[in-house]
Amino acid sequence: MRDLLPFLLPYRKQVLLAFLLLSFASATVLILPLAFRDLVDFSFGQVKNPSGALSSGALISTQSLDGHFAVLFGLASLWALTVAARYYMVSWVGERVTVDLRSAVYARVLKQSPQFFETLQTGEVLSRLTGDTVLIQTVVGSSISMGLRSLFQFIGGMVMLAVTSFYLFSLNLGLMILLTLPIILIGRRVRKLSRESQDKIADSSALAGEILNAVPTVQAYTQEERETRRFANSAELSFIVAIRRIRVRAFLTALIITAVMGAIIFVLWVGVNQVREGVMTIGELASFILYAALVAGGVGTMAEVWGDLMRAAGATERLLELLYAESAIQDTAVTKPDGTKPGGTKSDIAASAMPQTTPQKQVAIRFEQVSFRYPSRLQTPALDNISLDIAPGESVALIGPSGAGKTTLFQLLLRFYDVSEGTIRLNGQDIRQLLLHDLRDKIAIVPQDAVIFSANALDNIRYGRPTASDEEVYAAARAAQVDEFINRLPQGYQTFLGERGMRLSGGQRQRIAIARAILKNAPVLLLDEATSALDAESELLVQQGLNAAMQGRTTLIIAHRLATVQKVDRIVVLEHGRIVEIGTPEDLRKQSGLYARLARLQFDVATRST
Questions:
Q1: Is 384 exposed, middle or buried (0-12, 13-18, 19+ CB in 10 A)?
Q2: Region 163-180: what's the mean pLDDT?
Q3: The pLDDT value given to residue 292
Q4: Could you tell me if 39 and 57 are in contact, meaning their C-beta atoms sit under 8 angstroms apart?
């Protein structure tokens, strides 16, 4: 739990104020039994003489008795006010720390490379961001305060028990010590089970998230009942683990309550006998009972808090795994003393921050003997000794069968992964020496699976460049042939497109992704089957927009339909992670290689279809 301290330090003033309020409230509640003792003894006229013997005097006046009741009520009211103030302050701190922790973990996750998500499901991350942070909020905003309050009550109560009757106190202390070992041992068991319980809940969340994102596919294959059973089985496993945790914690609670109450009853029995023998006053016994009750309540609450802490400790471990996770891709560049960064001058940086109307400085790309193996598939090379020079403003198409390495080249260029061997350079500079932000700021991409956010059409396109004006967004939309269908939507550009763009067709989603890339206005354009979801008419219209967007930009195109890349400067043919052919479309068609075979297959099929 000490790893939460960095999140508490910014609010140390609020924490200190809460601690002072807690201390004051604890001191007030410890005074209440003394006031009650005086009230009882004065009411019955019992006092101790200097020798310690009891003597009985006349009952005190009604006015004095009322004064003691007034003091008792005043202390109770003061205690109530300080408790309320303490509750507000610690709850504020708990909510604030939870928001900060959740934001920090989310920001960390967003910086992870795709390799990170090869073994961790999105649902698992969401479970940690929601369920685990709620547990931590409960501890920081409530349990720790309750634990400290109970600890103060316990310590203060034990001191006052010793002052009131050292003999009874010694009996009470001995019995309390016997309770410590089982509490610690069982508490560790609760922590282990809490971690396991949270893991099972996260598994259920991950499964639900995956299936909910694929509802149309599930329904198309009539797998609703099967997926329902899978989720029910997963939820049942989390229930079984949770019940095991609850059973252990319930046993811990029963053990503590039984032992504490047994100790109190035993000590009370001894105290009553001392009153009968004249060793104690009734008021002293009453105050001793109240202090014993405070001590017992403190121990009981601390037991509950200990269970909460063990649960939160498991949740914190899971969150900190995300918070301290190091991305496989790291910035290696540093800022120069004059304020510039590798890969750009002051003027370049200033220009990139201004509204862009023309492409940034043209970029040359060079792959030097690049080889790569995915971390999850180390036995199979995805790329094998790739060398390729792409001139500034050149358009190059990457073709080849699935698994040839085309998408891998895009991922390496964006530094989603780092090369296993070799170097990739932009304008002669190793991309590993560029800041990730600067590198990716120079690249716009249209992925094969267009991503549409839960927002309106205007904001979805503006995602390419958040500083763009409305007119710039409209211009990009017209270039991508998006304008014609957006204007037919109920609220035009202000129309909410639904989660993952469910209100749009596949082709419409892809055209919005193209408009987003056009708006970014980056010097490098990556098109991954950018027109694969379009019909023939839409493809023709969008291709005109893409041709305009490619002007003055270095463009790499992944394509399976060769008809879409007949006007590029060069075609690079990949197979099994290697370059097997390079040339213009006309030159490659004249050869008897892989491109010629694919071209004959596709164009002959198209001719027969016509």
A1: middle
A2: 73
A3: 75
A4: no
Among left, alpha and beta (phi > 0; psi -120 to 50; other), residue 529 is left
Radius of gyration from C-alpha coordinates of the chain: 36
Longest dimension (CA), the chain: 125
- Cα–Cα dist 520/466, whole Å: 9
Give the domain-ending residue among 323, 348, 375: 323
DSSP-derived secondary structure for 287-333: HHHHHHHHHHHHHHHHHHHHHHHHHHHHHHHHHHHHHTPPPSS----
The helix or strand, by DSSP H or E, that contains position 210, with its residue range, turns out to be helix 166-212
Task: Count structural domains, the chain.
Answer: 2
Q: Which helix (H) or strand (E) holds 180?
A: helix 166-212
Which residues contact residue 435 at a Cβ distance below 8 angstroms, ignoring those fewer than 6 apart? 331, 333, 341, 342, 343
Question: Residue 162 half-sphere exposure, CB side, CA atoms within 13 Å?
Answer: 8
The 10s digit of each residue's pLDDT in 383-441 is 999 999 999 989 999 988 888 889 999 999 999 889 989 999 999 899 998 888 889 88
**Residue 424 has what pLDDT?**
94
Lowest mean pLDDT among 24-33, 46-55, 91-100: 46-55
48 occurs within a structural domain: yes
Instruction: Report how far residue 599's alpha carbon sits from residue 588's, in angstroms, rounded to the nearest whole number.
Output: 9
CATH (domain of 235): 1.20.1560.10
Does residue 337 surpass a pLDDT of 60? Answer: no
Query: What domain range is 68 assigned to?
Result: 2-323
Using the structure block, give the residue that is written with the tokens 């049942």: 236
